[in-house]
Amino acid sequence: xxxxxxxxxxxxxxxxxxxxxxxxxxxxxxxxxxxxxxxxxxxxxxxxxxxxxxxxxxxxxxxxxxxxxxxxxxxxxxxxxxxxxxxxxxxxxxxxxxxxxxxxxxxxxxxxxxxxxxxxxxxxxxxxxxxxxxxxxxxxxxxxxxxxxxxxxxxxxxxxxxxxxxxxxxxxxxxxxxxxxxxxxxxxx
Length: 189
Fold this sequence. Notes:
The chain is of the alpha+beta class and 189 residues long. The protein folds into 2 domains: 24-71 and 79-98; 111-186, no CATH class. It is 47% helix and 14% strand. The protein is built from 4 helices and 4 strands; from the N terminus they run αββαααββ. Helix 2 (111-120) crosses helix 3 (125-139). The longest helix is centred in the N-terminal third of the chain and has 56 residues, at 16-71. The radius of gyration is 35 Å and the shape is elongated. The model is unreliable at 157-189 (pLDDT under 50).
């Protein structure tokens, strides 16, 4: 007869258990691979979160140190601009600050202030007046039903205005050496 322990099994059934064990091992190894990929992705996500958290803390520290340095002096001797350097943990941070009083808000500045700005930047007086007119026209919406004079002027000056612009997302680029010195760009955020 046959070997002891194999009684009653046909030759086709002898490898069934091995096949089942191999399938179970394949399933377990697949789970292990999926789990290791999940752990690697989680570690990368936590590392990116760690970097952004550290960056946020460094920016906050820079702001607080700037405020501290500005409060050390009285209001009359407070600097309008400045810079300093500090290190925190393994980071090296350079901070520079400028007073907002030195900026011109194109959305609310008077025409005279805009003319003065362009003259200081080197534009001739008549060109500065034209530039100021363009900015004032740019920020003023035409009355309903009236002709859009600014659209013709912007076409002449090669300025493009997109419909989705808000006044806060409009920026001015100007160079006195450029043949077309005024361009207003609309930025979508």
